[in-house]
Design a protein that fits this description.
Number of helices: 1
Strand content: 25-35%
Helix content: 10-25%
Number of strands: 5
Strand order of the largest sheet: 1-2-3-4-5
Shape: globular
Order of helices and strands: EEHEEE
Radius of gyration: 12 Å
Distance between the termini: 22 Å
């Protein structure tokens, strides 16, 4: 996993690595689409992401990452 994607929680879901506060609907989308990536990540702990609700949500990005360390924006919230 690229260091810039590090967060606080890591899970393995059906062979994919899920790092950080990734929204459940995007995990479901990942499992349906089955892209050739290692997993999804939300770097840090942005306010407004699942489990980090607060009065002033921040926009944040959800990234895919692959074996070569390449990343791509999968979604924005």
């Amino acid at each position: 996993m690229p260091e810039r994607l590090y967060s606080c929680h890591t899970a393995l879901v059906d062979g994919y690595v899920i790092e950080g506060h990734v929204p459940a609907d995007l995990i479901k989308r990942l499992l349906k689409e089955k892209p050739k990536v290692i997993g999804l990540a939300v770097p840090g702990m942005p306010i407004g992401s699942p489990g980090m609700e607060g009065p002033n949500p921040e926009p944040y990005e959800i990234f895919t990452f692959d074996k070569q360390g390449r990343t791509m924006v999968y979604a924005r919230r």
